[in-house]
From TrEMBL:
Coiled-coil annotated residue ranges, if any: none
Protein name as catalogued: non-specific serine/threonine protein kinase
EC supergroup of this enzyme: transferase
Organism listed in the record: Polyangium fumosum
Keyword check for Nucleus: no
SMART domains on file: AAA
Keyword Transferase applies: yes
Lineage: Bacteria, Pseudomonadati, Myxococcota, Polyangia, Polyangiales
Amino acid sequence: MKQDDAERPSLDRIPTGITGLDTVLGGGFLAGSVHLVVGPPGSGKTILANQITFRRAATGQTAVYVTLLAEAHARMLAHLAAFEFFDPTFVPHRIVYMSGYGVLEQSGLDGLLELLGRTIREHGAVFLVLDGLGTAEEFAPTTSVFKRFLLTLSTSASLTGCTMLLLATQRASDMPRPEQATVDGLITLDKRRIGARSERELVVEKMRATKYALGAHAIDIDEKGIHVYPRLEAWPFQPPSSAPPRGRIGFGVPGLDTMLGGGVLAGSSTVLVGAPGTGKTLLGMSFLLEGIRRGERGIYLGFGEAPARIVQAARGVGLDAQGALDRSELTMLWYPPTEGTADAVAWRLLEEASEEGQKRVFIDELRGFRNMVTDVERLDRFHAALWAALARRGATTLLAETISTWERAPSTISLPQAAFVDNVIVLEEEEKGRRLRRYVATRKVAGGKHDPSSRRLRISSQGIEVERPNARGRLRGSA
């Protein structure tokens, strides 16, 4: 450590207790700082502030929640009781709810400042929420007076070590400059309409002395409260914390692993491209179960058929997925094709893949993410960031991509995925008389030699098999 680093004062942080938000904020709020949360009605400001307040109380600290609004505390608490973070035993011993409107009306901003300071001292509060900053601004005769009010709040927070959260019902772009210039941090909550859909998002506009994540991050609200899902591509690339897995890993399919020169590289990403019915899902399940046979965990993420049907189909070709599920060696995540948040699904997958050890991941249908991402321009960056994040967790990733039947000839398939995956395997089928034949070809294989010729793929109750190269078959170096 450099000498000037050792002399630099430490900056203690107060975690919000909301995992994704603490990630975006680089660990939480600075202790003794003042932060402003703005957003239109219904954007989640009150839920966010109360969720952080109850998290602080759960650590044994005291918090104060002061409202300058007309809503009665009893009604607000009744609404909060529906959330899992709500604990009525914290009120009023660890969380003090009080109204400051009467004092503001009678004694103005100076009276409100005196009330806040006295309450912090009397209760030893380390966290304070002032809900309704716009009301306080209405009582300021001039902009200078309101700016002085904010500066005094900032000084009080610094002296007492009490972190403050101010809530305002408006957009950051509509706010006068005193609020934005005076506070230590500015967070915007918003709801966007995209066609018939609505999306909630969080943006950190400003956060002093913090390396926060730029841009918009998805948020959801459910019975547990607010969830923040940091945008994957907002993070700089980080190499694996430990040595990446070595060697090549196979599908457990005779013939296919030979075509791949022994398999795909451990830690790589592979896309299976083919029309519906060409065998992508069954090959993916074979890939996972072969890993389980070798002591690696398997994770399935699907957006189409329900897991029970996938397990049944696998049983039909001799793959015992149910046994792997029963032994907790296989995890199956499923998201039906309805509206959802791509970042929420991605972080759930990364959470599942965070356990130590080598593992395999099969994502059954890339279009699942494509249907969820409303900003199509970020899709490639999102995919690349997700594959890299999985690789950092020791995962080898297999992806299925369905194309139209008229695109099935390998020579005509357009593969935008090829730019951000290591390996490309193409599946096709053709009718010969009354018989349907399937074929597989390796289009791109990283880190070794492979057989690029198209070979027969057979799927039956006896299993999955690819015809082996004959004496004339050649292995060709990867492009």
